[in-house]
## 1
Amino acid sequence: MADKLDIKIDYKKLKVLSEFNTDKAEFPLVLAIPHSGTFFPAEFLENVACDVATLRRNEDIFVDELVRGAVEAKITTLKMEIARAFVDLNRDRLELDPMMYFNYPKDKDILYDKHCRVGLGVVHRINFKRENLYKGLLDYHEVEARLKNVYDVYHKRLQKLIDKSLKKFGFCLVLDCHSMPSKICSIIDDRSGIDICLGNLFSQSCPPEISDFLAGQFWDKNYNVSFNCPYSGAFTTFNYCQPRRKMYTLQLEINRSLYADEENLQKNEQFEAVAEDVSEAIINLAIHLKRMYE
């Protein structure tokens, strides 16, 4: 019989997120960075069956630094500080796997979709090696506290920033910033691999003018850009997409091999050049969106 894990975390001591340029919205654009956090609560680490290096292999390494130039250009930005392996913000709150808990409520609603089936729901069951993440079964009530104090904090703040942009500009684009493993890019496109993927829910999450403009920024710098392949958009792209309210979303995925050594989690020699290109593309997008408003 699997052990019952007793994880108790003092959330008052944790820095959950960082935000930039949120006092005054300069552009109708919000950058969301949900998967670049590197902090793991000590109580969590005591109950997982792998080391920190393994846990970090599914994070979006250095994405927050890739967009630093855009942040310095006064674009509103929200970044999660806690690591993805602890809570995955780009999943629905209901994407829980009942088999991970020793006391999952029998009457509790579940959304047992493809992410849960492969072990990557809102709370991950496996690491990147597809090994079990935890040493035993979780306490459902502890995970509910985890969602309340991390997941909900992030998403409530993101919604407030969107509302602020809607009030000022009449519309808002959430650019959900991620990185993607080079392996999947090469499998999808065996010619030269995909450098940039823009996920717009197959042209449903934002006007084509917006996604085409951003694609053009990368095409002009000779990046191989793909739409909706290998990623069309996940929870954030879907959940905050309300075209009738002029709430738009777009998921940005950057091939990790362009700027980093994926295995050693280190920047490569091209990092600064890629960061400059990514930030410049986002800044130009922000200016373009503001002109649409004016």
## 2
Amino acid sequence: MLILPIRTDTQFRRTPAVNYFLIIANVLIFLVVDVFSGRPMPTGLALWKRQYMLDPENLSVIQFFSYQFLHGDLMHLLGNMLFLWVFGNAVNSKMGHVTYLLFYLACGVFAGLGFSLGGTSPCLGASGSIAGITTAFLVLFPRTHVTVVYWFVWFIGTAQIQALLLIVVKIILWDNILAPSLAGGRDYVSVAYSAHIAGYIFGFLCCALMLLIRALPRDQYDIIAMGKRYYQRQQYRAMMADPNVRAQMAYGRVARPVAAESGEVVEAAPEPDGDVVRLRSEIAEQLESEDYEGAATRYAALLSHDSKQCLPRRQMLDVANHLMRTAKYPQAAEAYEKFLKHYPSDGEAQQVQLVLGILYAKYLEEYEKAQRCLNDSLKRLTNPDLIRQATEWLESVTASLGRRGPRTAS
């Protein structure tokens, strides 16, 4: 069964110009060295190509870079460029141009080192570099869906597969570990699996490290955020295993207020609303199982019982983000406002203010509120890309307010 990725649903923040350049460079070098030179290849050009392959028995520093731009044949080139196009564009857009170029070359160098440790035959191709780009995509966009073309006997069609499943199970485990083992190593000589594995490892670890030290902008969809949410769910399960904790979560503290001077009870504590307790518990369970639509539905029911209800910070943000993604903009704005009111010092508050400002400006056309949110976000943002985005939207909002003119009292 043949499965080939053809595109992802990732949105680009910037044009992936460096990835375009790398694809063009690989194609041009192949055309010059392998096509336009004629067949059979002139002796001098053949020697030149052999000299700049990665040769473990005759290594030089330049080979660790030059071998990344040489290919064995047209199918080798097309396969590599397809994967570079599908996964590289989004990674380039996320990393920026200089960082992406250095990262791409570093992946190729590390893949070459991995191959040189055990290989004896020469190696060429961009596969090691692209392996690192593929796992970088996995780190940055694990929940993204990848559209693939499948071909099984006479069945041909397309399907969408989550990036985490496609890259880990199909591309890494099956294509590079299980399938070669089942084949008994018959094609190992023609495919540098050790270079692929080294590239995968370097790309994953290096990209994850850049996220951890915030050399790359973080968001709630990267693999670090997924890991944190998984850890929080495990903590929640362990905590809720204690019946005393479950009782406290359901009923809170049973307190009876007293007068400061006499010490007498002034009023009885209100009984907990059973529907509110039930709905909050169901929202937590739905979010834990990643049923965001069900959680949003129960959140709306919760507000109908008590409009002042606010969820724990992570739950509140997950529900607000889902409302935003499903184009329920007024409800999303209300949820974001509630998050900022109850968690003003949260680490993600500055990004929430930016998103809320854009929401007010782009979808709700409430420019005064948009201006307030964007101004507040600019006071706290530190990421240059987010600052630029907030500034551009603030200029647009200010211009819209100017065109509309001052309001008059009716």
## 3
Amino acid sequence: MDWAKHSHDWPLAEHSRFVRHLPHQWHVQELGDGPQVLLIHGAGGATQSWRHLAPLLAQTHRVIMVDLPGQGFTKIGSKRRCGLDHMSEDLRSLATHEGWDPVALIGHSAGGAIALRMAEMMTNPPPVIGINAALGNFTGLAGVMFPLMAKALAAMPLIADLFTVSAARPASAKRLIDGTGSILPEHEIEYYRRLVRDRTHVDSTLAMMAQWQLDPLLKRLSTHPSRTLLITGDKDRAVPPMTSEQAAKRIPNCTTVSLPGLGHLAHEEDAANVAALITDHLKVLS
């Protein structure tokens, strides 16, 4: 998206900066002081997803947020590096370049998988906290067809244009949010509306979907080195809570917490409750 066009009212824009570290130009937001935590949004999101949670965590931590390649305001440098392994490696490389040493990696949805994969790549893997983490594949026919469809869509240049035109309709973004099981006020849905109206953002999200390969990570969960907390919303329609419950049984040092009445965007619906869970968990680990 065009930073000049949106920066005047983008959440936490006063904490934004841009970092050129190959292959991408990253949009980074940092606020607060103390031990560092790195927040990783899900597919199709951006730093605005953390607009409520970040200021609460910043009361005790240095909060670092990054837009994934091509999504939000990060300018993508290579469309071939949108899969789980490549994004995790590029994000880890960015952290090294910037001298970040997070005491926790916090990921929402697909960001939860990226956090787990990134931790595997680190010499001293920090704890991982997943919020409605996308740690399962589609089952049955959908498990076969969805990856093929994503690859086909990503290979068709006009698809992103058609999707952004459709998303420009006022009700489209609201339907997308409602489909997650979360309830957001209209003025906050507008941030998602802006994202899905942007061709580059949509194109990069499709590329991420097309290149996503979760199976290798899932096969290694039984040997994952990080202490892990998986937070779920019991009304999540995008990633059923059972997904985290099943993953937790395979991760050696993992606990789960279910939040009643919240959907896939639990950290946006009830940031105070999620922040309390995270800070209490980190206190125990410190």
